[in-house]
Amino acid sequence: MKLAIDIMGGDNAPIAILDGVRLALENPAFDGSLQLYGDAKVIEQYFDTHKISKSRCTIHPTTQIIGFDEHPTAAIRAKKDSSIVRAIRAVAEGEADCVVSAGSTGALLTGATLIIKRQAGVLRPALSSMLPTMAGGRVLLLDCGANADSKPEYIAQFARMGHAYMRQFCHIESPKVALLSNGTEAEKGSELIKAAHELLKADTLLNFQGNTEARDLLAGHADVIVADGFSGNIALKASEGAAAGVMGLLKTALSSSLRAKLGAALAMPALRGMKRSMDYTEYGGGALLGVRGGVLKVHGSAQGKTFAYAILQAVELCRSGVVGAIGELLRGHAD
Amino acid sequence: MKLAIDIMGGDNAPIAILDGVRLALENPAFDGSLQLYGDAKVIEQYFDTHKISKSRCTIHPTTQIIGFDEHPTAAIRAKKDSSIVRAIRAVAEGEADCVVSAGSTGALLTGATLIIKRQAGVLRPALSSMLPTMAGGRVLLLDCGANADSKPEYIAQFARMGHAYMRQFCHIESPKVALLSNGTEAEKGSELIKAAHELLKADTLLNFQGNTEARDLLAGHADVIVADGFSGNIALKASEGAAAGVMGLLKTALSSSLRAKLGAALAMPALRGMKRSMDYTEYGGGALLGVRGGVLKVHGSAQGKTFAYAILQAVELCRSGVVGAIGELLRGHAD
Question: By the CB < 8 Å criterion, does A277 face chain B?
C-alpha cells in the first residue's frame, strides 16, 4: 500500500507529522510505503536525527504550503507545488493509494474533488468521521462538513456511502442507518431533512432506522448517522466541545483540594480507562468518501500518535475496498 | 406576578409538576400567585396530602391532555380544554403574565404563536435556552428549534431578541452576539448563514462578534449565540448528549473497582461542585421569545426541583421586562 503524506499540513507540522511517520514505520503492523511531500531539508534532517531508515520512504520536495486561512479553491490553483496539492496529485495519478493530511480541510476537500475527481454517479463527496459510542462501539457520522449546503439527493447518497463504509471497514452485514434531525418522528425536520427522509425510506438497500436526535449521536443505536454537511459539522463539534469541556471541569475539580487530589490518585487507573474509551485519537482521521481514491483528513491539532494511527487507518481504508464498494453502489444512482 | 401552570404536561406529570409548585410556594423568594390548570381532583388531593395552603393558588379544572406524540396544530385545535391550551389562553387573555409548561414543545410553541400571537414586527418567535458555560458564566442560545426552517431575516431578529434578553435579564449593557456556523471566518457557512451574517454585521445595535463554531458553544466567548432553529436544536442536544455521556462514563469508571470507589468517595465534594456548575436544572426552562406574553418551556423530563426553578425564572422573566424590550426593538424592524 502506497500512501502520500502531506508533511507540512497541521497546527504542529512538520514535526508532529514526522513523529507520526516515525511511529508508523516503527509499528510492526504497518507494511506500506510512504511518499513524503514537504520541505526536503527538514525531512532529511529529521530522519538523520532520529536515525530512521528511509528504505520504505521516498521524499518528494515541495516548495509551498497552504495555510488554514487561505481560500481553498484559490490556494489549490495558485500553489501547485504545495505539499497538499502534490500529495493529492499522487493519488490522482495512481502513484499513491491514499493521501493523508492534517492540513486545511477546505484545501484537502476542494483539492481532492478537483484533482482526484468524483466517482461516477457521485453528486457530492462527503467527509466522514468515525466516533466512539458510549456503548463501547463506533458510529460513522457523515457529512461532517464537506458540503455547507446539501440537497436531499446528496444525503441519500451519503447514506449509501456510509452503508458501504461500515460493511467493508467494520464488516457489518446490514449497517443501521439513521438520519440526524430535530426529532425522532418522521415528520420532524427541515424541508431538506424531510425530503431526505423520504428518499432514505424508499431505498431498499438500506437498513434505515428513521430519524435520530443529536442527543443520541453517541448512544450507539445506529452504525451510520447521516446528516446534511452543515448540521453534521455542528453535531460533531458540539459533541467534541461538550465532552472536552466536561473533562476540563473534571480535571479542575480533581485538583481543587488535597482531598480531591488523593481521591484522583486512587481513581486514576479507572479514569485512564475511561479516557481511553472516549479517545478520538485512536480513530485517526475522517475519510472523504465519493472520490476516485483514498483521502484521509486528520485533525489539524494532531500530534504524532494520532497521525500514526491515521496512517494505519489509511492502509485499512485502502485494503477494505471502501472506494470500490462505493463506486458499485453509486454508479447510476444519481440518474 | 400571576403564572399559569400546566399541571398535566411532562414525562413525570402531574406529580413532578405539583412537587415543583409546592417547592416554589415554600421558597421565600417566590411572591407570585399560581393558576393551576389540570385535573382538579388530583390537584386537590395533592394539596390535602401535603397540607399546602391554597391561599396563593387558584385551581382551573381541565378535562384534556395533549401528549408528546400528537400533531401540535391539530391537537391545539381539537383539545380546547387541555391543560396546556387553557394555560396559554390565560396569558392571551391577560389573566396571567406567563405560562409555564413541561409538556409537548410543539404544542406549546404552536399554541403560544396561534393564541397569544406574535409581537408587532416579529417574523417568527424563537425558543431560547440559557446554558452554563465552562468559564462559569452563561450564554443564551436561540433559536433552539421553534423553526425547523429559518430565513436570514428571522435569524437577524433572533439576535435582537437575544440582545434584549441578556440586557434585561442579565443586565449586560452590550451583549456579545455570535452566529453559529461551521467555521469562524465570515465566508464560512451555508447560504442561509452567510446571508444572516451580513444582516448581523450591518445591525449597528448589536455587538456582533462574527461566527462561532459549535465547539465553542459553551466556551463563554459570547453572551448570545444565534442560530437557525434546526442547527440550534442540533447544537443544544449534541452538547447535552455528549456531556451526559461523559458523566455516565465517569460514574461507571468510579464504581468499577474498590480502589476507584474509595477515590470517588474522597473526591466526592469536588465532584459535586463540578456537577453543580454544569447543572442545567438551575436554569429551569427556555423562554419563547417574540410573543405577546411570557412563555416558559421546561424540559419534559423535569422533576419537582427543576420545575420550581422554572417558576422562579418565570417571575424574573416577567419582572425583567424582556417582552417589552423585544417589542421595542422589533417594532418596525421587519419592514
Answer: yes
Convert the pLDDT of each residue in A214-268 to its tens digit. Answer: 999 999 999 999 999 999 999 999 999 998 888 888 999 999 999 999 999 999 9
Q: Which of B237, B249, B273 sits opposite A253 (nearest CB)?
A: B273
What's the ipTM?
Answer: 0.92
Determine the pLDDT at residue B282. 58
Q: Residue B314, class by beta-carbon neighbours within 10 Å (0-12 exposed, 13-18 middle, 19+ buried)?
A: buried
Residue A228: cis peptide before it, omega within 30 degrees of 0: no
Grid coordinates given for B239: 452538547
- Omega within 30 of 0 (cis) for the link into B143: yes
pLDDT at B285: 83
Residue B67 contacts A, CB cutoff 8 Å: no
- Cis omega (within 30 of 0) on the bond before A175? no
Integer CA distances (angstroms), A126 to A21, A129, A158, A226, in order = 26, 10, 7, 10
Cis peptide preceding B14, ω within 30 of 0: yes
HSE-CB of A148 using CA atoms within 13 angstroms: 15
Most A CBs within 10 Å, among B110, B179, B192, B215, to test the A interface: B215
The whole-model pTM stands at 0.93
Nearest Cα of chain B lies from the Cα of A106 at a distance, in angstroms, of: 10
Identify the closest residue of chain B to A188 by CA–CA distance.
Answer: B148
Binding-face residues of A in 129-148 toward B, CB within 8 A:
134, 145, 148
Mutate to test the interface with A, among B266, B277, B299 (most CBs of A within 10 A): B266
CA distance A254 to chain B (A): 7
Q: Which residues of A57-86 are buried (b: 16+ CB within 10 A; e: fewer)?
A: bebbebeebbeeebbbeebbeebeebbbbb
Nearest to B18 by CA among B303, B267, B271, B313: B303
Q: Give helix A258-277 / helix A229-254 axis angle, nearest 10°.
A: 150
Q: What separation in angstroms does the CA of A327 have from each of A111, A319, A324?
A: 20, 15, 5
3-state helix, strand, coil split of chain A in percent (to 5) is: 50, 20, 35
| CA gap A124, A76 in Å, rounded | 19
Rounded alpha-carbon distances, angstroms, from residue A108 to A6, A66, A220:
10, 10, 29
Q: Strand A294-298 and strand A285-289: pairing?
A: antiparallel
Instruction: Count other C-beta atoms under 10 Å from residue A37's C-beta.
Output: 30
State which amino acid sits at residue A127.
L
DSSP string, A114-149: III-BPTT-SS-EEEEEEE-TTSSEEEEE-SSS-SS
